[in-house]
Write a structure and sequence with these properties.
Layout (H helix, E strand, L loop, with lengths): L2 H9 L6 E4 L10 E4 L10 H15 L16 H7 L3 H15 L8 H17 L5 E2 L2 E2 L4
Antiparallel strand pairs: 1-2, 3-4
Helix pairs in contact: 4-5
């Protein structure tokens, strides 16, 4: 018996369904996740928080960090950092930056926490926690 099987039994996840379409660079398709909420056990507003995070992250791709030059509107500073293999360190530094200023600058600013979560998501990407092999995505943990 593994800890995962114990967790599965504890959450009674018999009716849990999860499907994900991964980012397709050729078709420029964003990831879409569809989860059946039959047996998700949220207690602390997690569903609302996840929705807020999805909205926040999505809006960053229309922000002032993208270029205004024709042909470069989808390129962000982070893309340039990734090309120079600096993205992981940049993300980790920003997690520390926004995490340490939470509660100090502008009080308990929700946006700082959103940035921490977003940079953590990006760090998981740049550190290959969601690699694809032969077109099949896998998680490393």
């Amino acid at each position: 018996m593994t800890s995962w099987s114990l967790l599965y039994d504890e959450l009674n996840m018999d009716n849990y369904e999860h499907t994900v379409e991964y980012y397709d660079r050729e078709r420029n398709v964003s990831p879409i996740s569809s989860v059946s909420h039959k047996n998700l056990h949220f207690k602390y507003n997690e569903e609302e928080i996840l929705s807020d995070i999805r909205d926040y992250v999505s809006n960053t791709y229309n922000s002032h960090y993208t270029s205004s030059e024709p042909g470069y509107k989808d390129i962000q500073t982070l893309d340039l950092m990734a090309a120079k293999e600096l993205a992981s360190n940049f993300c980790q530094a920003n997690i520390l930056k926004y995490g340490s200023r939470y509660g100090s600058k502008a009080g308990k600013n929700k946006k700082d926490l959103m940035k921490v979560i977003h940079y953590a998501m990006l760090l998981m990407h740049f550190d290959d926690h969601y690699k694809t092999t032969n077109g099949t995505p896998y998680e490393t943990f």
